[in-house]
Amino acid sequence: MPDTLPVAQYLFKRLRQLGVDSIFGVPGDYNLTLLDHVVPSGLKWVGNCNELNAGYAADGYSRIKGLGAVVTTFGVGELSAVNAIAGAYAERAPVVHIVGTPPRASQESRAKIHHTFNDGDYRRFDAMQEHVTVGQARLHHQRTATSAIDEILVQCLVHGRPVRIAIPVDMVGVTVSAAGLAGGIQIPLAVQQPHEDAVLGSVVERMYCSKKPMILVDGETRVLDVVEEVHQLIRCTGWPTFTSGFGKGLVDETLPNVYGVCSHLQKPFLELCDLVLVLGPHFSNTNTYNYLLRPQDEKSILFGAEGPDSIQVLNDVHQDLPVKHFLQQLVQRLDASKVPAHQHDLVHPAVEIKALPDISPMDPVTQTAGFWKRLSPFFRPGDIILAETGTPGYGANEFILPPHSRLFKPVTWLSIGYMLPAALGASHAQRDLVARNKCHSLSNPRTILFIGDGSFQMTVQELSTIIHQRLNVIVFLINNDGYTIERCIHGRNQAYNDVARWQYLKAPEFFNADRDGEHRAHTWQIRTWADFDLVLKDPYLIDGKGLRMVEVVMERFDAPDVLLGLLQAQIQREKVHI
Amino acid sequence: MPDTLPVAQYLFKRLRQLGVDSIFGVPGDYNLTLLDHVVPSGLKWVGNCNELNAGYAADGYSRIKGLGAVVTTFGVGELSAVNAIAGAYAERAPVVHIVGTPPRASQESRAKIHHTFNDGDYRRFDAMQEHVTVGQARLHHQRTATSAIDEILVQCLVHGRPVRIAIPVDMVGVTVSAAGLAGGIQIPLAVQQPHEDAVLGSVVERMYCSKKPMILVDGETRVLDVVEEVHQLIRCTGWPTFTSGFGKGLVDETLPNVYGVCSHLQKPFLELCDLVLVLGPHFSNTNTYNYLLRPQDEKSILFGAEGPDSIQVLNDVHQDLPVKHFLQQLVQRLDASKVPAHQHDLVHPAVEIKALPDISPMDPVTQTAGFWKRLSPFFRPGDIILAETGTPGYGANEFILPPHSRLFKPVTWLSIGYMLPAALGASHAQRDLVARNKCHSLSNPRTILFIGDGSFQMTVQELSTIIHQRLNVIVFLINNDGYTIERCIHGRNQAYNDVARWQYLKAPEFFNADRDGEHRAHTWQIRTWADFDLVLKDPYLIDGKGLRMVEVVMERFDAPDVLLGLLQAQIQREKVHI
Question: Which of A114, A418, A552, B548 could form a disulfide with B286 if both were Cys (CB 3.0 to 4.6 A apart)?
Fold first, then answer.
């Protein structure tokens, strides 16, 4: 390690230490010299087609690897990415947004230059990005640059939310001390608080005296970094366990007491429970079936109720108790013999799937006849599965996931177009994990995307990056002729819910995928159950490399039950109005 | 006209009165009921593939028709569009950004719902959008809704900058009085100011006593709405007239005293002038060849120096003098016999083009051998020509434009990816003008886009909208294998300046263009000057309908002179470092 190095390399090497192996972004004239330092710092550069997609990709990467990064240019680039950064903020994905900014002299003299509003005001974009980031650093000073970088990265990791680092062109090469790199970043450890013991005691007591307890694993469990501790809790209690949509994929669904997503169908069971342990709660309307699944405070213990250091026991919120540390104490303290069992008659989803009725091979594939449920056998350990907002997002609740798999589902931000670039990012993370030998000994795990036609059109160009990076990605394109989710909500026959009809399976050719060799792109079309069976057994699909794309043609108003309920309500409203 | 109507229709009908015939956007669950009112209000709905593209399209529309509008949904939609709105702010395009927001009750109760940060804070997006809009209206109150709409539209028109109108779902159908619609919106007229006469006098005096005067038409002339007055000034003085890059296309270049874009080559001439009348100045670095063309204050008169109501004479800025009114007075007051003539030896660009050297038909087409100059005969009256940031943006300076044509060039915001959706918007505006019989008796004028491969990839999906709206658009895709403009600036051989190679001419097939009939898409490829001659004479290209696409294959480092200068400087720097 040299004694000094350029600021840019300090930043990039720090990211590498923290597990970032690939970085996303788009070049622009205020970040070109910055990009010169990416590869020399040991990172891989992944150029995206546009900045929104780059932001989404970094988000996807971070949800798999624990940290992601994206580089854009001042103004035009960073604003194009802002919606992705906002989504990462809303759903707690730790993304470092690095923005190449104009030289300090231009900023200080208020020069009227391009990528500004020609008014000398250089702080507007800082101000806008503050709303979507948990911390901001402007690297304008040589002596404070490295400490500013370290501090902001800690913020990013502790809160699991995006930060923005603005680096002026003329700071990129400024020499700084490399000393800080030797030690790695210290994430502040939990400090034992005087009230911790009492809170622990009350949680244990509450657990011991419950009669009908359950566990609900929600999605902020990921960023609390307590997936392992939660599994210990699930195993040690044996209590019936559900996930929210956001939490799905964080828990091993092959465990006998894990029952999949807690949907409106479980409402009666939930009502009967007298204690609900909620891990990483995220109680938005879309993640709780319109609050239907939010347990009453009086019978809940929330781990991470108001951020990563808070525990809510019944109505009391206890702050300054880092959840990971708290859970470790809790699992240690629990006496298995005192943990009550909960007698119930829940049926494990795996049993339900075996009981699916037969279907006629020549019938069209429909969601109502079990398209989503019947996909489960296709998944295998290590798969990353992404289901875009729309019918796939609801459908994915019905998947039964194998161990070591992960799922991305719409949660709260619900920005359609997110999932395709997120699949690019997640797949890169998957590949980087394999390279670091941290992927459960799997050598070539798959990333599988389910996406509707409307969403696909939003960010389609990133398929090109998936192709040219030779990633192992399977795309199921649900072609149901427009925004079916919106048709269910309102305007079922309105033209504004239509999208142009594309020849979707021509995409690999347009984006110039290999036409031969092992990364040759393969495409299929599914219309009937016979097609479904045939395609899902095709070894090129199952074990191929590079992009594989399956167009599933479905009827406009075919959707999961929840959406069909909205559609029926809409039809009822129309009748009233007539 | 009914006595009352829903708020949404008041808004849309008002837009229609102001010349908006087509409105762009993307549906989302907080704007669906709003969209129900688009067609009943007499507007055409143009659904885009994503919100950034929709914003760009509305910007393009507004620059042709004087006002544009885009509809997005709360949070995800509006943030995706924010970079387009920022560009409209920077370059003064009056765009009305209408955002469908959650019901008032959700907002007031701070409900944790989707498209928020799950924290009950509903004002963040308002705060972010304030930075990129000249006015904001939140339509939360029935009694003030119509006056708020009217006021905000006046702001938009007077300043030529975007405004944001947020309309909660439950306000869409609220009944309001239609009375205001009867009168139309009154843009405040100029009020005679006591100092106007003195300022007019000093301007006239300065003009009479100049020896070497010139006129520089800059781009804010468009939004000052003084194109007609400027032509009177050009004709009545006979003075040598140039445009900036931003101003190009606003002035009839067939006039004998109009000499095209004032580039660095005109610096010596500019130096010799003792008076420069600048109309609609916009002195950013990129619009002035790095301030080279910004005339000294001591010899300038700036019309619109600091907004639409300011006149700068030498060093003094006079406020509250609306430029349009001032120019009308000025032209009236000028005594042609007292206006001095300026003897000079400028050569009209039309003469230069005729003197272009012969080229060998089998030579590859290059920018250095006059690709841009040689295109001029292809253009015809009424064409809208768009040249994207990159080599086309510089190349377009060399076009000689026919009367009634318009040009979009990179100015200050320089957000690559803008021009393709802007072409969609401009072409729609062109079609709407024809329908209103306001397009100089032209029946089917063309929109012609020049765009590099890197920019094309950014927003490619909007080609689908161009195709399916059957717009008369010609795309020249400059395929020079990556970000050539960035290669010229820095990192000429760096991988981050590469883009994936696509089969660009497969785009119409992928996007499902007609394969027969009058709107069948046509494609061509140009590699040599022989191809160039053949393709540009093809009647399908010249007079076809629908999308025509020409791929022009060029060498990586082929660029206009200005960029080649940067490239040479880069090579020199590298030598010094070795």
Answer: A114
**Of A577, A512, A50, which is closest to residue B173 (Cα–Cα)?**
A577
Contact B409, B248 (CB under 8 A): yes
Tokens of A265: 């169908």
H helix and E strand count, chain B: 24, 21
Helix boundaries (H) for A51-123: 51-65, 76-90, 104-108
Residue with tokens 């990265």: A153
Q: Do B491 and A35 touch (CB under 8 A)?
A: yes
Contacts of A256 (CB under 8 A, 6+ apart): A348
Structure tokens at B44: 């055409």
Q: Which domains are delineated in chain B?
A: 4-183 (3.40.50.970), 196-338 (3.40.50.1220), 358-573 (3.40.50.970)
Q: Residue B84 in contact with residue B418, Cβ under 8 Å?
A: yes
Q: What is the DSSP string of A376-443?
A: GGG--TT-EEEE-TTHHHHHGGG--PPTT-EEE---SS--TT-HHHHHHHHHHHHHHHHHTT-STT-S
**What pLDDT band is residue A547 in, cutting at 50, 70 and 90?**
very high
With CA atoms as reference, report the closest residue to B470 among B428, B422, B516.
Answer: B428
| Residue B400 distance to chain A (closest CA, Å) | 25
Q: A561-565 — which CB contacts under 8 Å span 24+ positions?
A: A561/A368, A562/A263, A562/A264, A562/A289, A562/A394, A563/A391, A563/A394, A563/A484, A563/A485, A563/A488, A564/A368, A564/A488
Q: Which of B45, B413, B498 shows the shortest C-beta gap to A47?
A: B498
Q: How far apart are CA A277 and CA A564, in angstroms?
A: 31
Question: How many whole angstroms separate alpha carbon A476 and alpha carbon A452?
Answer: 8
pLDDT of residue A441 exceeding 90, the answer is no
CB-CB contact of B349 with B253 (8 Å): yes
- CB–CB contact B76 A89 (8 Å): no
CA distances from A200 to A80, A193, A338 (A): 46, 11, 15
pLDDT tens-digit map of B252-285 = 999 999 999 999 899 999 999 999 999 999 999 9
Pairing state between β A522-526 and A548-553:
parallel
pLDDT of residue B449: 98
Token pair of B267 as six digits: 């610096």
Chain B residue closest in CA terms to A33: B490
User: What is the predicted pLDDT for the residue at A128?
Assistant: 98
d(CA A34, CA B167): 42
- Phi and psi at residue B272, to the nearest 5°: -75, -20
Nearest-Cα residue of chain A relative to residue B415: A76
Nearest CA in chain B to A413: B115
- DSSP one-letter string for B381-408: TT-EEEE-TTHHHHHGGG--PPTT-EEE
Q: Residue A83: count other Cβ atoms within 10 Å of its Cβ.
A: 30
Does residue A578 register a pLDDT over 70? Answer: no
Q: Which residue has the tokens 């083009």?
A: B353
Among candidates A33, A114, A507 on the partner chain, residue whose Cβ is nearest the Cβ of B286: A114
Closest by CA to A473, choosing from A402, A405, A532, A424, is A424
- Are the Cβ atoms of B112 and A283 closer than 8 angstroms? yes
For chain B, what is the mean pLDDT?
96
**ipTM associated with this complex:** 0.97
Mark yes or no for CB contact A500/B511 under 8 Å: yes
